Amino acid sequence: RYPMTKTPLTIIIPCHRDDERMRQAIHSAAFAKEIIVIDQQSGIDWKKTQTQTPLTVLSHPKLNSFSQMKN
Prior knowledge:
By secondary structure, the chain is α/β, with parallel strands linked by helices. About 20% of the residues lie in helices and about 30% in strands. Strands 1-2-3 form a three-stranded parallel beta sheet, covered by helices on one side. The radius of gyration is 13 Å and the shape is globular.
């Protein structure tokens, strides 16, 4: 296999709960050079989360709707 090079891309993932879909989203974004997670009180212990791609985790108060998150 050829070594995987990281695409110069930043992916931002909003997160509001700890479930398998969040882990799948992080895993599927592993091709990107950087992943930023906007954590809205998910309860995930990010220090224990192991990924091959460095994560930047930003905490944010939980919002009630997706439209609030976009603005």
